[in-house]
Design a protein that fits this description.
D-Amino Acid Oxidase, Chain A, domain 2, DAO_C, alpha+beta, 10-stranded mixed β-sheet, 13 helices, globular, Helicase, Ruva Protein, domain 3, 511 residues, 3 domains
Length: 511
């Protein structure tokens, strides 16, 4: 049985797996499956990481607060993954120390010490130092009455780049990645799936066959299953919105803060893009289109109120430079507080007798995406009766094939001494050793071409269009980079005009 095609077109091959959703879970499964020899087609209705996967707290962490809900298995699993990811992607993931100011009326010191002891020992820890107690002196940015605290380790991640680099790894193993391509219909045809995909830029439709289907649509997983695939979700789902704000840097230093609040929730304050602080997150039950999720005035006031209760510098709503909100689809019913809903994942397998299988991805957190992908690919290989061997635990992501960030920066400086320090530092943290690919043939700053503002040049714009599926300025400014914080509206307008021409040329070259 072959694919249905228009007259005169070559039939599409039958893929082993069609993955719907270009967030971290979909791209993670695509990478793992392609690396095991499965033929993979992934479609994403918008840009890679366009929703939840670029709207996280930017942390690779076990989830210290989950210990209070006795989710020891999830925390241990996430802490083990933290070690693996720090090794596999040292350019976009880096260690981060957290300070937890002690507020005796909220949690006693013995409880915090016990929790940190568990956090240090629930999984093997090699890359990061353990926790310790702190005395906060007069130079602390916190209010004078806060004199005691604790410190522990986790890691920071550029979440959207994690998705894109995982997609690049998938493509390097033969996966086909289609962005701005929606699945508008899928049905079983015996032991195959027949799916209709629509290019959202041109309206062109195509039909594809696959031996298995993966629904990794994140907060759209239930809607896709019911309206497009016409199957029921077998587990309760809960949509929870988490919101963040960005302000000017609140304090010097590269450490983060984890702040306790009267309602038992916590709020992070994290160094962000050198000059800013990222504050989040909230947990609010959500209804409606996940694409329209935005922070509410109440959430903004909540986050600022928690920060103002701890820091000497007081923030107002006018200090917020940027905000974002993401919706998580949690495998959980709607009982209890949203903050207590499990962040663990469920893989829901649907395979009527004699019919093609489907796996739906429910829940999960960015820290455990690789483990989730490994388990999903194990199941796919079993369902398709293919031999398989897990491989991603030791696989560096593109650009991550180096041991020490400082050594990488020194090497790049020797090779490209004409790069401004800010640009070299950003290239190190965004591209790692892929910087050589980006700068191939360049001998001076002039070779980077047109300057659009901040430290964005035409060479990088073209590279992202050609290698990282960038089609719109928002893809570049808010996901591949965070230069949207720095470029002025007039500069963005010039960039938009430039990209409109270059993306059309690129599309014509690959049509």
């Amino acid at each position: 049985m072959g694919d249905v095609t228009a007259a005169g077109q070559q039939p599409e091959p039958i893929h082993d797996v069609l993955i719907i959703g270009g967030g971290i879970n979909g791209c993670g499964i695509a990478m793992d499956a392609a690396g095991r020899g499965l033929t993979v087609l992934l479609c994403e209705q918008d840009d890679l990481a366009c929703a939840t996967s670029s709207r996280s707290s930017k942390l690779i962490h076990g989830g210290l607060r989950y210990l209070e809900f006795f989710q020891f298995r999830l925390v241990g699993k996430a802490l083990a993954e933290r070690e693996i990811l720090l090794h596999n992607a040292p350019h976009i993931i880096r260690p981060l120390r957290f300070r937890l100011p002690h507020q005796p009326h909220l949690r006693p010191a013995w409880m915090i010490r016990s929790g940190l002891f568990l956090y240090d020992h629930l999984a093997r820890r090699k890359a990061l130092p353990g926790s310790r107690s702190l005395r906060l002196g007069p130079d602390s940015p916190l209010k004078p009455h806060i004199v005691r605290g604790f410190e522990y380790s986790d890691a920071w991640v550029d979440d959207a780049r994690l998705v894109v680099l995982t997609a690049r790894a998938a493509a390097s193993h033969g996966a086909r990645i289609l962005t701005r391509t929606a699945c508008i219909g899928a049905e079983r045809r015996g032991d195959l799936w027949q799916a209709t995909l629509e290019d959202r830029r041109t309206g062109r439709r195509s039909t594809h066959l696959s031996r298995a289907l993966v629904n990794a649509a994140g907060p759209w997983v239930a809607e896709l299953q019911q309206s497009t695939i016409h199957c029921q979700v077998h587990h309760p789902l809960r949509l929870v919105k988490g919101s963040h704000v960005v302000v000017r840097r609140l304090y010097p230093g590269e450490h983060a803060y984890i702040l306790q609040n009267e309602d038992d929730r916590i709020v992070f304050v994290i160094p962000f893009e050198n000059d800013y602080s990222l504050i989040g997150t909230t947990d609010v039950d959500y209804q409606g289109d996940p694409a329209a999720a935005a922070i509410s005035p109440q959430e903004t006031r909540y986050l600022l109120r928690v920060v103002n209760a701890h820091f000497r510098q007081q923030l107002q709503e006018t200090d917020v430079l940027w905000s974002y909100a993401g919706v998580r689809a949690l495998a959980d019913d709607a009982h209890g507080k949203a903050q207590a809903a499990s962040r663990d994942y469920t893989l829901d397998v649907d395979q009527p007798p004699g019919q093609a299988p489907m796996i739906s991805v429910l829940g999960g957190k960015i820290t455990t995406y690789r483990r989730l992908a490994e388990e999903a690919t194990d199941q796919l290989c079993g369902l398709l009766q293919r031999p398989s061997r897990p491989w991603t635990a030791g696989a560096a992501l593109p650009g991550g094939d180096f041991a020490d960030p400082a050594t990488l920066a020194a090497d790049l400086h020797k090779l490209y001494p004409w790069l401004p320090d800010t640009l070299l530092r950003r290239f190190c943290h965004s591209y790692g050793t892929l910087t050589h690919e980006l700068l191939e043939g360049c001998r001076s700053l002039d070779d980077l071409g047109r300057h659009f503002g901040a430290d964005l040049y035409a060479r990088e714009v073209l590279y992202l269009i050609q290698r990282e599926w960038v089609l719109e300025p928002e893809d570049l400014l808010w996901r591949r980079t965070k230069l949207g914080l720095r470029l002025r509206p007039a500069e963005v307008s010039v960039l938009r005009d430039y990209m409109d021409i270059r993306t059309r040329w690129h599309a014509a070259d690959h049509s």
